[in-house]
C-alpha cells in the first residue's frame, strides 16, 4: 500500500536542529506521534511519503526540499511566511505534489491528512477528489471553538484570521472518507455523516529497549514534560508541591507555553521547583527514566479532555518510571490499572496524593513503572497500532472501489 501523509512530521534530527537554532518547540509531541505511526507503516512493508508543512528555515521564504530517513520520503513545502500568502502557497504546492505522487505510484494508495495542516490538506484533498483517491483525516486534538479564540490577547486581525481557519477546518471534515480519532468521543462531535472511523489513542516505539533503572538519585525528582499552559493544572500542581513538607524532592518542568512567566515566579519562591526549558525528545526520555515520578496535572473538568489523549501518557509509561495523573475521560479505562491517579483535583488533593506516592518504597515504585512499560510495549507498539490502521485503510479502499 502507498500512503501519503499530509501534516506536521519530520525526522528527529531535523526537529532537534530547529530547537537548537530557535530554542522553541516546533511541536515535538505531535511530530513524534505522527512519525511513530508512519514508521509502523514502513515496518509493515508499506511505502510512505510525507508532505510536511514544518518550516525548517527561519527566513521569510522557505524553499522546497526533501530528505529520506528510515525509508520515509519527506517533502517540505515551499512557503512565504506572510499570512494568507503562506496558506495559498501550501494549497497550490500540495495539490501539485499530490497529483505527481498519485501518477507515479501503482497499486493501492490512500491519503492521510492531519486536520491541523489545514491548507496543505486542502490541496491534497482537492487532488484526491480529482483522481478518486480515498482520503482519511487524522484528528489529534479538539478543534478550538471560536469562543476560546476570542479571549486571545493578540491583534484583532490575527484573531479574525484564526477564527476563519477554525471554521475552514470544521467545514473540511465532510470531505473525508474516514477518520482516525484519538478518543471515542470525537466520533460524536466530528463525524456528523457517520463515516467509517477507528480510535487509536497513541503508540510507543517498538524499537525501545527496556532497561530498568534503579532510582537512587537524591533529591528525588517529580517531572512534567509537555505544554506549559495554565489550563493544564499548573497553578494547582505548583501550589500543592510548595506545601510538601519534603526537602529532598524537586519538581522539574520541561516544555514551552504561556504559563512560563508564572512558573518562573513560583521558582523564585521555592528553589525545589526547576524550569528546565525546551530540550530534544531524546533528552526528555533520558530525564523521564531518571526521574522518581512523572506527573500530568491536566484538570478533568474541561470539555477538551474528552477529545484528546495526552501523548505524554504513553511516553511516560514507556520510560518505566511510575506515572501520577488526573483521571481523564479521553484515556481508556484499561490504562488506569498501570497508573497512579489523583483522587481530588485541588491543592490539598494534589498534595496528599504526591505525599502518598512519594512515601512508597523504591521497589514499589519501580514495580508499578515496569508494569506500565510492559503494557504499552505489548499492546500499544507503533507496529500494532499501524497494523490496525492499515486494516481500516483496506476497508476504505475497498469501499471506494465500489462507488
Would you mind describing this structure in some detail?
This protein is an alpha/beta fold. The chain has two domains: 2-205 and 381-402, Glycogen Phosphorylase B (Rossmann fold, 3-Layer(aba) Sandwich); 220-379, Rossmann fold (3-Layer(aba) Sandwich). The chain contains 14 helices and 16 strands. An eight-stranded mixed sheet has the order 4-5-2-1-7-8-9-10, with helices on both faces. Strands 13-12-11-14-15-16 form a six-stranded parallel sheet, with helices on both faces. Helix 4 links the parallel strand 7 (109-114) and strand 8. The longest helix is centred in the C-terminal third of the chain and has 21 residues, at 382-402. The protein is globular, with a radius of gyration of 22 Å. The relative contact order is 0.13.
Number of strands: 16
CATH topology of the largest domain: the name is Rossmann fold
Indicate the overall shape: globular
CATH superfamily membership of the largest domain: Glycogen Phosphorylase B
- Order of adjacent strands in the largest pleated sheet: 4-5-2-1-7-8-9-10
Rg value: 22 Å
Proportion of residues in extended strands: 15-25%
Number of domains: 2
Low-confidence stretches: 145-152
How far the N terminus sits from the C terminus, by CA atoms, comes to 20 Å
Give me the CATH architecture of the largest domain, please.
Answer: 3-Layer(aba) Sandwich
Helix content: 40-55%
Broad CATH class of the largest domain: Alpha Beta
* Overall pLDDT score: 88
Task: Please describe the biggest sheet, giving its number of strands, its sense, and whether it closes into a barrel.
Answer: 8 strands, mixed
Structural class: alpha/beta
N to C succession of SSEs = EHHEEEEEHEHEHHEHEEHEHEHEHEEHHH
The tally of helices reads: 14
Amino acid at each position: 500500500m502507498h500512503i501519503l501523509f499530509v501534516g506536521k512530521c519530520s525526522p528527529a534530527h531535523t526537529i532537534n536542529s530547529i530547537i537548537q537554532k530557535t530554542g522553541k518547540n516546533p511541536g515535538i509531541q505531535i511530530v513524534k506521534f505522527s512519525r511513530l505511526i508512519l514508521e509502523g507503516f514502513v515496518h509493515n512493508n508499506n511505502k510512505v511519503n510525507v508532505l510536511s508543512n514544518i518550516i525548517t528555515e527561519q527566513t521569510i521564504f522557505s524553499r522546497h526540499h526533501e530528505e529520506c530517513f528510515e525509508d520515509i520520503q519527506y517533502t517540505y513545502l515551499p512557503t512565504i511566511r506572510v499570512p494568507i500568502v503562506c496558506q495559498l502557497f501550501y494549497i497550490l504546492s500540495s495539490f501539485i505534489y499530490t497529483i505527481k505522487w498519485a501518477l507515479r505510484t501503482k497499486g493501492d494508495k490512500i491519503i492521510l491528512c492531519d486536520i491541523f495542516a489545514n491548507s496543505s490538506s486542502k490541496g491534497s484533498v482537492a487532488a484526491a477528489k480529482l483522481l478518486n483517491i480515498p482520503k482519511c483525516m487524522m484528528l489529534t486534538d479538539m478543534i478550538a471553538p471560536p469562543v476560546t479564540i476570542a479571549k486571545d490577547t493578540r491583534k484583532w486581525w490575527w484573531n479574525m484570521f484564526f477564527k476563519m481557519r477554525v471554521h475552514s477546518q470544521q467545514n473540511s471534515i465532510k470531505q473525508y472518507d474516514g477518520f482516525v480519532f484519538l478518543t471515542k468521543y470525537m466520533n460524536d462531535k466530528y463525524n456528523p455523516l457517520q463515516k467509517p472511523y477507528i480510535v487509536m489513542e497513541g503508540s510507543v516505539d517498538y524499537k525501545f529497549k527496556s532497561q530498568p533503572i534503579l532510582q537512587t538519585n537524591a533529591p528525588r525528582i517529580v517531572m512534567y514534560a509537555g505544554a506549559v499552559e495554565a489550563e493544564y493544572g499548573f497553578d494547582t500542581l505548583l501550589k500543592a508541591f510548595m506545601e510538601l513538607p519534603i526537602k529532598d524532592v524537586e519538581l522539574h518542568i520541561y516544555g514551552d507555553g504561556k504559563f512560563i512567566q508564572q512558573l518562573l515566579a513560583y521558582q523564585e519562591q521555592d528553589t525545589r521547583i526547576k524550569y528546565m526549558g525546551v530540550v530534544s525528545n531524546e533528552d526528555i526520555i533520558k530525564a523521564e527514566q531518571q526521574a522518581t515520578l512523572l506527573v500530568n496535572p491536566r484538570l478533568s473538568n474541561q470539555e477538551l479532555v474528552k477529545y484528546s489523549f495526552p501523548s505524554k501518557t504513553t511516553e511516560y509509561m514507556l520510560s518505566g518510571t511510575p506515572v501520577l495523573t488526573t483521571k481523564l475521560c479521553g484515556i481508556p479505562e484499561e490504562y488506569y490499572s498501570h497508573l497512579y491517579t489523583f483522587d481530588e483535583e485541588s491543592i490539598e488533593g494534589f498534595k496528599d496524593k504526591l505525599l502518598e506516592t512519594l512515601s512508597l518504597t523504591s521497589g514499589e515504585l519501580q514495580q508499578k513503572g515496569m508494569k506500565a512499560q510492559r503494557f504499552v510495549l505489548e499492546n500499544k507498539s507503533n507496529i500494532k497500532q499501524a497494523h490496525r490502521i492499515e486494516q481500516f485503510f483496506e476497508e476504505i479502499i475497498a469501499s471506494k472501489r465500489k462507488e
